[in-house]
Amino acid sequence: MIIFSPGYQFLLRMEMFVIVLLILFGVLFLVAELVLLPGVSAGAVLSLVSFGSAVYMAFRDYGPLGGTVTLGVVLVLAVAATLLSLRAKTWQRFSLRHKVASSMPAPASEQVRLGDRGLTLSRLSPMGKVEIGGRSFEAKSLGTYVDPRTEVEVVGFENASVIVKPIDKI
Question: Does the model's pTM come out above 0.85?
Answer without folding.
Answer: no
